[in-house]
Design a protein that fits this description.
- Helix content is about 75%, strand content about 0%.
- The chain is mostly helical.
- The protein is elongated.
Length: about 200
């Protein structure tokens, strides 16, 4: 590809050309060569360690590659620079969950919702973790129900995934009649959408 060859030549002439490494990373992402892309962004970060956008781009790649610890490391840098950016807080919380730091992930989802009270993904993730985590110390049925109900209200109780989360929350809270009702509603909506697996 001519563009890749041009940027490869550029970094041969100037090994500290951050812009060219960034472009090489973008090209590799488009070609679905994620490890290669991560390598280009990592090289760029060695040259420009304070570049917040590079940290965010590399974090997304490391997360996609399953390296959640590295994603957390880079997203922590981004969150320090943008402490009120709900998208960054959500991404960091998700990476923390993937890395197994459930306590910090829950705190992160709560913080995300302080900044953006109606972010559906953050609401769903928080409620699901509080309702279904394998370790009892992280479960909180009452809070899970409150968060999931608010999410369902935002979607007029017509979105199946929030209803499934609400069903799990009710079950954790011990209200199995409500759990069965919401689960049935979710199943009907998934079926109507042709999603038999869900």
């Amino acid at each position: 590809q001519p563009a890749r060859e041009a940027f490869e030549q550029a970094v041969r002439f100037n090994p500290r050309d951050v812009r060219s490494y960034r472009h090489l990373g973008q090209i590799a992402v488009r070609e679905k060569q994620l490890e290669t892309a991560a390598g280009h962004y990592a090289r760029a970060l060695e040259i420009a360690p304070a570049d917040v956008l590079l940290h965010r781009q590399l974090a997304m790649l490391r997360g996609a590659l399953g390296d959640h610890d590295e994603a957390v490391k880079h997203l922590t840098q981004v969150a320090r620079a943008h402490p009120r950016d709900a998208g960054v807080l959500f991404q960091l919380s998700t990476a923390l969950l993937g890395a197994g730091d459930t306590k910090q992930a829950i705190a992160g989802f709560r913080k995300t919702l302080e900044v953006a009270p109606n972010m559906p993904l953050a609401m769903n993730n928080l409620a699901w973790v509080l309702a279904t985590h394998s370790e009892a110390e992280f479960r909180n049925g009452k809070e899970a129900v409150a968060v999931a109900e608010r999410l369902c209200e935002l979607t007029s109780f017509k979105s199946p995934r929030p209803l499934a989360t609400l069903a799990a929350a009710h079950a954790e809270a011990g209200d199995f009649k409500a759990a069965a009702q919401r689960a049935s509603e979710a199943i009907e909506l998934f079926a109507a959408a042709g999603d038999q697996a869900q």
